[in-house]
Structure formats: structure tokens, C-alpha cells
Amino acid sequence: MSARGDRLAGLAFAAAGAALALHARSMPVPDLMGDVGPGFMPMVIGVAMAALGALLAATARPGGGPEPIEPARVPVAIAFAALALAYAAGFAAFGFSWPTFLSLLAGMTLLGRRSWRLFALQATGAACFVLVLGQGLKRGLGIPLVGVWFG
Amino acid sequence: MLFEMLASLQSILASPGTLALLVAGSLIGILFSALPGLNATLGVAVMLPLTFSLQPGSGIGFLTSIYIGAMCGGLFAATLLRIPGNASSIATTFDGYPLAQKGQPVKALATGVWANFVGGILGLIALVAFAPVIARFALAFGPFEMTSLTIMATMLVVSLAQGAMIKGLLAALLGMACGLVGFAPIDGTARYTFDVTELTGGFGVVPVIVGLFAIAQILREVHRAAPKVALDLHVRGAGVTRAEVRANLWNMFRSSAIGVWIGVLPGIGASASSIVAWAMAKRASREPESFGKGNVAGIWASETSNNANVGGSLLPLLTLGIPGDAVTALMIAGFMIHGLQPGPLLFREHSGIVADIYASYLVSTIAVLLFQLATLRIFPRILLVPHHYLLPVMLTLTVIGAYAADNQTFDVWVMFGFGALALVLERYGFSLAAFVLGFLLGPILELNLRRALTYEDGDLTPFLTRPISATMLALTAVALGFILFRQRRGGLRYADD
């Protein structure tokens, strides 16, 4: 990891630790004998994180460096991450089957080769997968999924 | 008890129905742990009503076989896809997945399968031979000892970061900070929930683990473009060599002992035991730098430990009637269905049922071994599936897994959040193992620390005057001192973990 990366990470930890410790001060003080209260652990963790973060930032030295990012794949990765978030939103709003079917189809189209014939095959495969998985999870394992086809 | 177990084993083998039931239980367990979100607890809960109609020994034996199958089943997804099917297989991803990616998935799986078997058998031996002794010793563990133990376990994993120990500590602290979210122990104060109802129970273990390992891996694979994996599916014999077994004998015993011991202690769980065992194996190794890159010793450590953990967690259940985790708590219900109460009287009044449980444990361990050996060369072909099919399916399975753990869609967002966090942490060289251990052990540490201080009116000296607690703290201090001393002498390089 580069010295700059370590410095940035150290500062981020120091800031997060300080915020944690500050927030811990607002927690109630217990009236039980001996109990340190709900704010004690966050305070200890926050202070330790802030101190160690600062130490990391101060003593950062160059190392091996992270795995290089392939610029050509970044748009695909971003699109796939967006697809994953859209799938999660669809899952929350409409349940299992349709969002899963659409995300599978979109994912395969995004990552693989594209042709109308392949698209039709992938759509059929995705529909079968969603149908079998949905029925298996809902009827077989009793998981209360909503929006399951023929559920 | 050994002779009673052998007699019970003979009667199981003579009864095809009972044998089939135990084999089915093992396979159900494997199925329930293959997907994240489905786990041994859910498997036992779903199958519990079926035991109404069974004989007590067969019914509880059936639940035991699900537990054992579930503990072993996480191996495949953890090794081939880096998706820990259950929390106990987290440490298996550290070396199993890199070895599979090097084109040796059969080798990785075979090691895990045999490690499952060895861990299961050593856990059973501990259960049969040492149950009363270990249970009595475990009772001496109060909040002071539990606090010291969690500190020792966390520091052990953190110390593995060697030159990057500060980063290891920071990762563990961040994990602990994430474990703070939700109601505080003892007084129930809501912390860092930001008025979000779903956060009052804290972050679920399943979405956090799946996010850290699976989501991060899926995104990394998308970014990396499909690598060409040349699979070596023609490993000779049972997949492990005698030399490997000989070289890992002590590793197996040590990891099993860790698994049994952590299983005996309530509330810690198999996930922590496998990470600690992996950490110990790395520490003891002559080539620690190869851990996390496909060293078979790491797989031996993780899988023997989590399977031996089953024997450990059954131990306080059977001898004292104390459940060590959620699965054994459900198994108490299995006993109660048949009007039985686990505990010392069970051994005196229903020793036949105890023998049936032991025999079921043995049969299930063997059934899982045979099933996994038979499928050893089939499942690795999943790595040959093109990425544009595999990754969207993996995404679907992780979303369902995160949802199924508590049936709430909020957990799906939590999973993605932790996936993003894992990408950042790994990119900047922070150990995910330390983070996970901090997350899992932080709440246990806080609960026991607060209990200890409340019992002793805020006095800290019992940490040093109680022998077990003092010993563990002294060992931690000595180990850390040794590492710092070696670092100062330049014996350790500034290394990535």
C-alpha cells in the first residue's frame, strides 16, 4: 500500500474514531454500582481508533501497492454495481421473481456476448431458474418470499 | 458409554430406516449450509416438527445429523465461490478459494472434506471421553474469564498482521464499532440506530459476512474480467497425500482442540473458532506468508476446527443442559418434545439416548464424508461456468441469502454496504479476518466486561487475581511482547496480511 493510501486511511479512521467517541459522550451514565454504562465501549473503541488512525497516518511508509485497476473494465463494474442496487430495490418493492428474472437477464447481457438468439436462450434459462428457485425456496424450505411466480 | 455407543451403532446399521433418516439429515444439513442465509439453525428449526413421530434417540439423532451436515456443507461454496455458506466457513475462504483459483479446486475440496471428517471424529472423541471433565472446567468460566478469552482471541488474529499490526488493530476496532449498533447489552440503550427500526437489533451476521466476502468478490470478479481457469480434476486417490496428513497432524489436533473448547463456551460460535484456528496455524507455520494464498494447512485448520466445534457445543448441552449456540438451543426443544431434559440426569436415566446421539454423530460424519468424496470432482466444474452466467446467479443467491436470514429486505442493503466496505478495506490492506473477529467478539467482550465490573463493583483486580483470566492475559501479553521484540530486531518485514 502506498504511503499516501495509508495516510488517507489513517486519517479516515482517526476521524471516525473521534466521531464515535464524541457520540459516546451523549449516552446515559448508569446508576448501577460498578457498571461502566453503554457509552464506555464506544468511547474506548473510538479513542483507540482515533489514536491508531493518527499513528498510521503519521508513520505511513511505502509498500507493495494495491491491485491495479483496469480502466477498460471500470464502466462494466460500475454498471454491474448499479444493476445490483437496482435489483435490491426491485426485490424490496416487487418481491422475488420479476426483479430476479430481470436482473439475471440484464447481468448476462451486460457481461456476456450479445445477440437476439442468445438473448432468447438466456431469457428462457433465467425464467426456468427463477421458477424452480422460487418454488424450492418458498414451498420446499418455507422461506416467506413475496412475489413468487405461481406462489 | 463407549460400549453403549457401539451397541447403538450396531442397531442403527441393522435398521435401514434409521440409517436412511440419518443420511437424509446429513444431506439436508449440507443443503441448508450451501446457501448463505440458510444455516443449521434454520435446518433444525424446519425439521424439528418431524421428530414428533420418531423415537427419542432417532429424533434427536436426526437433528444432530442436520447440524453436522450443515457444518460441513459450507465448504463447497466457500472454496469454489468465496461465499461462506455459513459463518463457520469464513476462514475456509482464506485459503480454499485461492487454491481453487490456482486450478486446484479438487485438492482444496478434498483437504476440506478430510478435515471435516477428522474434526468431526476428534470432536466426537472429546464428547465421549471428556464430557464431564470439560463441562466442569467450562463452568469455571465467568465473565472475567470470558472477557480475557475474547481479548486473547482478538489479539491473536490482530497479531497476524505482523508488520501491519496497526492495520489489524484498526480493522478489529472497526468490526467492534459495527458490532455496537443496536441495543446495548445489560441496559438496552439504543446506540447508533439513527431511529432506524431495523437497526435496533444490530447488523445481522449473515448480511455482514455475505457482504464482506461474497459481494466484494463478485464486484472484483466483474472488474477483473474472466480469468481462464485450468482445472486439475484428476487428483489421485483421496485427494490428500500422506505427507500432507503427516505435516498437518499437530495442526489438526490443535485446531480441533480450539474448536471443541470454543464450542464448549457459550455464545462464541464456530466462526470464531475457525478463524482462531486458522490464525494459530499461520502463526505456527514456517511459511506464514503463504497463508491466504492457497496453503492447505489453512484449510485443515479451519475445517477441522469448525467440525470439532459441533462436539464442543453438544458437550455442555448434554452434560449440563446449557445450550452453547442457537442450534443446540433448538435441540433442547427436540429433547422436550419427547419429555426429556438434557443434563446430568440424562446420562443416568436415559444413557441409551445419549449413546444414540453419539452413534448418530458418527454415522452422519461418515455419511457426509462419503457424499462429499463422491461429489468431489463434480462441484468444481462450477468454476468452468462462464462468468457472465455465474456472477448474476451468485448475485441472486447472495440477495436471497441476506433476505432469508431474517426475512427483511433491509438486510440486503446492509449486505451491499458491507460489500463496499470490504472493497475499500482490502484495497487499503486491512485484514477482513480481524474485522470479522472484532464484529463477532465485540458484543461478547462488552457484555462480559460489563457483567464482570457489575459483579465486582467496578473492581478490575479480579482480571489479574483469578487464575484462568490472569493466565490468558499473561499469554496475550507475552505473545504481543514477543512479536514487538522481533519487529524491533527487524525479524519481521512490513508485510501485507
Characterise this structure.
The complex is a heterodimer of chains A (151) and B (497). With 151 residues, chain A is an all-alpha fold. Chain A folds into 2 domains: 3-58; 72-140, no CATH class. Chain A is built from 5 helices and no strands. The radius of gyration of chain A is 25 Å and the shape is flat. Chain B is mostly helical. Chain B has a two-stranded antiparallel sheet with strand order 1-2. The radius of gyration of chain B is 22 Å and the shape is globular. The interface between A and B is large, with 70 and 62 residues.
Fold blueprint:
The complex is a heterodimer of chains A (151) and B (497).
Chain A lengths: L2 H22 L15 H19 L15 H21 L2 H15 L4 H25 L11
Helix pairs in contact in A: 1-2, 3-4, 4-5
Chain B lengths: L1 H13 L1 H19 L5 H8 L8 H25 L9 H12 L3 H35 L3 H17 L5 H15 L2 E2 L6 E2 L13 H20 L17 H6 L1 H16 L5 H15 L11 H25 L5 H12 L6 H6 L1 H24 L12 H20 L3 H18 L4 H24 L6 H4 L1 H22 L9
Antiparallel strand pairs in B: 1-2
Q: Roughly what fraction of the amino acids of chain B lie in strands?
A: under 5%
Number of DSSP E strands of chain A: 0
Q: Residue-averaged pLDDT of chain A, rounded?
A: 88
> Tell me about the biggest sheet of chain B?
2 strands, antiparallel
**Which structural class is indicated by helix and strand composition of chain B?**
mainly alpha
Number of helices of chain A: 5
Quaternary structure type: heterodimer
Shape of chain B: globular
Radius of gyration of chain B: 22 Å
Approximately what portion of the residues of chain A adopt beta-strand conformation? under 5%
Taken together, the total number of domains of chain B comes to 1
Taking the alpha carbons of the first and last residues of chain B, their distance comes to: 46 Å
Low-confidence stretches of chain B: 491-497
The helical percent of chain B reads over 70%
Measured by residues with Cβ under 8 Å of the partner chain's Cβ, the largest interface is:
A-B, 70 and 62 residues
